């Protein structure tokens, strides 16, 4: 009934249906029809009609007053501000496993709630990405936690704590991880990466010298090679569903060690609100993982 109320107030203000119709952009017949519909709806006669002249009666004056109030409230509703959305350009880096598993959903959630955000995504190794954040080339990066202390100028947000396991072909004759690592060809997890250096340290501590024939930084590629029977590997655990009939994961028991994955960002980020929103969304997605970092529950 808002159209009818606007026409009514225009008639009251201008003194005639003709003038009101002209102002609103209607024909006189259309404006008259709106007034008639309003009277029928209210079951009230709003005007005293004498020939071609109309004059508000007492009921009409009362209805006009109420109509003006209603239209004013409607105008106020239109001024209600929508929730503020973020703006800006996010430069984000991520290691390959995070790009494949989590990043698409995180970015989708980020831009769907903040459509004015643009993003630049960079794939790389943890050391390269951490250095880029430290030098101000990236706003944040999802990386493996380094084996050295994180610089004071940077902040670390933990996300995942993934256990390393020995992965072997399904047909391997033993479940003894030491024997598997020393008798089968060893597919090494990139020794230049943070995770790979942790593996090297583990092998040294246990005085193991596997026969390394292949080295790769792509965990998924390593899994595929093990599934094909090429050898064994020591890698952070992954979803093995696709290879469950072709390989096994051997737990290290009390010798278990982990790879930590998190977000590194400047301690005083250029895009603080945007980066904090990214962190909140990423935590929400990672929290459902069986390998979510224990510290997530404290934040």
TrEMBL record:
Residues 1-57 form the HTH lysR-type domain. InterPro entries: LysR_HTH_N (IPR000847), LysR_subst-bd (IPR005119), WH-like_DNA-bd_sf (IPR036388), WH_DNA-bd_sf (IPR036390). It holds the Pfam family HTH_1. GO terms for molecular function: DNA-binding transcription factor activity; transcription cis-regulatory region binding. Keywords: DNA-binding, Transcription, Transcription regulation. It comes from the Bacteria. Belongs to the LysR transcriptional regulatory family. This is LysR family transcriptional regulator. It comes from Bordetella genomosp. 10.
